[in-house]
Amino acid sequence: MSEFRRKSGGHYSLLRCRIHSRVSLLQRCILRALHRFLACSGAKPGANANYSMLTPHAALPSTSPPPPLESAAESGPAPVFHTNELDTDLVNLKISLLGDCQIGKTSFLVKYVGNEKEQGGEERKGPNQMDKTMVVSGARISYCIWEVQGDGKSQDQLPMACKDSVAILIMFDLTSRCTLNSVVGWYKEARKWNQTAIPVLIGTKFDDFIQLPIDMQWTIASEARTYAKALNATLFFSSATYNINVNKIFKFITAKLFDLPWTVERNLNVGEPIIDF
């Protein structure tokens, strides 16, 4: 009898161990599958996995800015103000910079951007790009400025540079009347890809311009004002070397885009940096 009990007890213990081993194996399999499911869903084990709504590429949360003051033929949908996917507090605005070669576009751009590094450098293909970030009325604004080369490659760069821009800066050299005559062509090409951007006409190298005879200054200034009215654009004379009207141009664009209470003063005096609108 004692031997039978011993055999029965041993058999029972062996059976219990087998059952316990299989249950443990089953639990490990279930836990492993649960961990894989939670890992794929982006949640940590033991934590509550909640869905989060993605931030859309949307306009500013406040009221939409008014469309630029342009002719009825150029009216269209308002420009889109995109927010950075990784920084919802940053509003990205694109600006196009057009004009012939050797008129000071890059110098103008570097003067405005300041110490912020150029994005892409000379090795990148396509338009030159630089960024400038500022704080306006508590909002962080980042201007991404696309400079189109004035050579034969410009035709390929124009669509990329002008699409979705909120402003188009058309530049000419105040000491070179042929570059002034080119602004109409640049304007027409830009409008093929963007009908709503604010047009701004900028005469560069004002520091060299004031060295010209006064009658030549008057003639060039009169022609520039005529072109600006034809393009329905605001006219600025500027100098990157002496930082004349460089920052003021972007303040004007910002004020116009967001309807801010900042107005630029008109200046039509020959011999001074003209501002006309």
Describe the structure.
The protein has 277 residues and is α/β, with parallel strands linked by helices. Strands 1, 2, 3, 4, 5, 6, 7, 8 and 9 form a nine-stranded mixed sheet that branches. Strand 4 and strand 5 form a beta hairpin. The protein starts with a helix and ends with a strand. The relative contact order is 0.12. About 21% of the residues have low confidence.
Helix and strand content put the structural class at: alpha/beta
Poorly predicted regions are: 37-85, 117-124
Helix-strand pattern: HEEHEEEHEHHEHHEHE
Number of strands: 9
- What is the CA-CA span between the terminal residues? 116 Å
Average pLDDT, to the nearest integer? 76
Provide a compact summary of the structure:
With 277 residues, this protein is an alpha/beta fold. It contains eight helices and nine strands.
Please name the defining characteristics of this protein.
277 residues, alpha/beta, 9-stranded mixed sheet, 38% helix
Give a topology summary.
Layout: H1 2-40, E1 82-84, E2 87-99, H2 105-113, E3 118-119, E4 128-136, E5 139-147, H3 154-162, E6 167-173, H4 177-181, H5 183-191, E7 198-204, H6 206-209, H7 214-230, E8 234-237, H8 246-258, E9 275-276
Parallel strand pairs: 2-5, 2-6, 6-7, 7-8
Antiparallel strand pairs: 1-2, 3-4, 4-5, 8-9
